[in-house]
Amino acid sequence: MDSDDKVKRILDRQVHGLAPDPFAKKSLYSYSTPRDKVIIVISFICAILGGVLNPLISVIYGQTVGTLGTHHQTRAGSPDSGPDPGAADARRQLLRFTLYWVYLAAAIFVLIYAATVGFYYVGERVARALRNAYLRSVVRQNMAFFDAHAPGAVASRIMSDMTHVQEGITSRLAIALTALATFSSAFVVALVVHWRIALVVSPAYVLMALFGSLSGARVVQYHREAKVASEKASGLAHETISSIRQVYALGIQHRLAAKYDGFLKEAGRPSRKALYLLGLFTAWCQLLPPSVHALTFWAGSQFLVQGGASVAQISTIAIVVVMGAFGIVRIAPAAQALVATVSSASVIFREMARRSPQDPFDPSGAVIEGFKGNIELRGVSLVYPKRPDAQVMKEVSFSCPAMKTTAIVGTSGSGKSSIINLLERFYEPTSGEICERTPFKSRILVL
Ligand SMILES: Nc1ncnc2c1ncn2[C@@H]1O[C@H](COP(=O)(O)OP(=O)(O)O)[C@@H](O)[C@H]1O
Ligand SMILES: [Mg+2]
């Protein structure tokens, strides 16, 4: 029982590694330098400011329309001939608003440019540092780690999962922040300008958020299903072409072509559903501005005739609510991508925290000096971590003198390569030891 426990402990250690490193880095930004952090903070502020400023365009728009309207009324009230009394005043005001527009456009351009460049710059650097750290941690792992992973899994983690992470912390984060700021600012502007009209039009936000997030999630799901099926199709094509001689020899071209067709059809179904949904969503987005305008001008006209709203207020709300609604619809997909980033990153961090029980870079432990090569196996048993039920070697003892040729002979699967695996320390023996006997000093060192 005792020895069973010991074997189990040895196997567990190889499969799960040592206790995870408590000081392992667990946050993406711990892979950034202080300079990166400064850039991120600046980009963060720029993205939010850029988003907040956007709806202010509608305020200037409303003011401009208001000024034009007032001037038109004054002009209509004054005699037809003779100089226009309010013209100079109106021109001055319109010039001021035009300048505001130019300033706003320049500010938004600079802010969004700075935020985008900043996020991409840091994201690229963080992803590179993370890729490096991941590869460094992977090459320290023991063989049981690689036995448990499919051959392409590590490479795909480095390529596709890291790309996921990189996208998340660059474009998605910038879009999410700007969109959130645009929506919040638009919401506040509408309430401040005329809260009653703003409330009448506010269902547009809810509809847009609901429709955006629901259809976005479904489209992603359909794309995923389509991707799985088309991967099967391309896998089949790859295998068929690479073993085309056998395919000809067996005369199975038609069968394989039919199978390929089946996979393509399987991929086509979710793709088509995604297409319909995407079409519906695009059309819905086109429907939104006229509907919001209609509702705003209808509600606004009610308040206007009662003297409770001005043309400027109504025009501002008509524009700002559309901006806010388009802001909200960009938040959901960006937020979903951020969640995917966090989950990819957490898998990566968990793997990086794994401490290998046979770490080639760990300098601690006994070092054999003056190694001669007199190797001796004493009662060595081996169970592979992936096959805990099979005893591959049972109390094997023999010695290989240095500078002599030793032949290990046996049937296939008898464990010859396993002895070499143990010598190379790819696996741990479940009992016994492998030693180097140094004849002159009569010392025994465990390999
Ligand atoms: N990494 C491994 N994980 C699980 N079982 C293994 C592994 N490597 C070898 N084995 C199994 O151990 C046994 C001995 O294999 P091996 O040492 O390769 O034999 P030989 O080299 O004498 O042909 C075989 O049953 C083989 O299937
Ligand atoms: Mg072999």
TrEMBL record:
Residue ranges constituting the ABC transmembrane type-1 domain according to the UniProt record: 41-340
Gene Ontology MF terms in the entry: hydrolase activity
Domain of life: Eukaryota
Bilayer topology: Multi-pass membrane protein
Transmembrane segments: 38-61, 100-122, 173-193, 199-220, 274-299, 311-329
UniProtKB keywords: Hydrolase, Membrane, Repeat, Transmembrane, Transmembrane helix, Transport
InterPro entries (UniProt xref): ABC1_TM_dom (IPR011527), ABC1_TM_sf (IPR036640), ABC_transporter-like_ATP-bd (IPR003439), P-loop_NTPase (IPR027417), Type_1_exporter (IPR039421)
Protein name per its UniProtKB record: P-loop containing nucleoside triphosphate hydrolase protein
Main location: membrane
Source organism (scientific name): Apiospora hydei
Compartments where found: Membrane
